[in-house]
Amino acid sequence: MRGGRLIGLGLVTVLAATLAGCRPTAAEGPGLSVVVGFYPLQFVAEQVGGDRVHVTNLAQPGAEPHDLELRPSQMARIAGASLVLYLYGLQPVVDQAVQLTGATAMDVAALMPLRDAPVAIGPDDPRAERDSGTKDPHVWLDPTRLATIAGAVTEQLAALDPGGAEGYRQRDAELSATLSGLDSEYTDGLRSCVRRDIVVSHAAFGYLADRYGLRQIGITGLSPDAEPTPAHLAAAADEARRVGATTIFFESLASPEVAQSVAGAVGARVAVLDPIEGLRPDAPGDDYVSLMRSNLATLRDALGCAA
How far is CA 265 from each of CA 8, 37, 87, 133, rounded to the nearest angstrom? Predict the structure, then answer.
């Protein structure tokens, strides 16, 4: 996984000056100010918080959340937030900012056991990503796990704002029902398929694969911008042929070149399977639920699932 950008001395100096003065407020207007590291946590906070929270996403639409660099204004928002929601290990720069600011924060990675990082297919190579204690952070691609996160966020918001507790819990119940329905759609939609192997350029789909009985074959492991060697591309093509893959998947916010290379070698097509790490600015109507349903339709088509 990409390590992210560390906080430089200049930002630390700005932060020290910020904290030495009055503590800023991250929200505009009344209500709780919630700062999130990336989109799925924004979705949860907005769905549960309703109009009692003001949510700020540190990652911009269309940008890879792993590549986040914090501006001084964002450091100030973290320092002044009522609550910061983040997933430890996904964005190290946010992990550091939370520690440096002493912000009231919730690490959603601590709510459940995480999978070990997937291993990219191919021969042993010092440049290849290997599991050395790293965990896979992509928990939100299992809607039942996202429901667990939403429940914990709900209780944290209720503790910070007791007057809004009933509303938070009601909205959480509605979101839980939506996510449960989405889980059922996936279970039913992927129950009877000709193929159950998914070849992906970015191995972000381990939780989804585990939940619905699929097998993920990752070309580059957790890093969507990793550069596979020719040996790894050849190994991925061999495995794609072996399992009869007709589609090689790439993600919406990264280059399709790796997927295209493998697809060209095996006579397969390419398609987007969205890890839903962020939204695209050219698709303003998208949200977590619509993107998960789009992924399901893409998987059903690629895997030859029964109607």
Answer: 43, 37, 37, 33
